[in-house]
Amino acid sequence: VATADVSKTVFQKFGCSGCHGHMFHPAETTPWMYGMVAFTCLMIFLSIYISYNPGVLSGGGFGDPDGLIYCMLGLGGFFGLIGGMMVFHMRKWISWSWSQRLKSEAQLEEDALNHSVQPQYEESEDFVLWAQQFLTLEEVNALKEKYGTQQED
């Protein structure tokens, strides 16, 4: 996880430490996906409505609404491509997530142990402080014995 502090806003980038592939956070992506798809639908609806009712814009100083229609279709197409890409990747994530929920705990553990990228323990005081929220010091030391080095306190 890489973070960057830009003008008091923190951005987090998630990535695989093995293949360096980019990962996304579905809870942060979903509102953007819905917004882009809704904007696309709105632009398409308005352009169709205006093309069948050209008199709607006659009082607003528009002589010929064709330019506006093309602009709205272009914006709808642009944001539709981005929203469609988000929908595609979100569907892939949802199908993977459901397949993981259907597996037993033993199957999940077996899959994790057979995965090509295995976790590596690095000595870190931050990890110890974080882990002590959930585990006792003895349990943290047991983790260190199993996956790394033992540190005496």
TrEMBL record:
The chain crosses the membrane at residues 32-52, 67-88. Keywords: Membrane, Transmembrane, Transmembrane helix. This is Uncharacterized protein. It comes from marine metagenome.
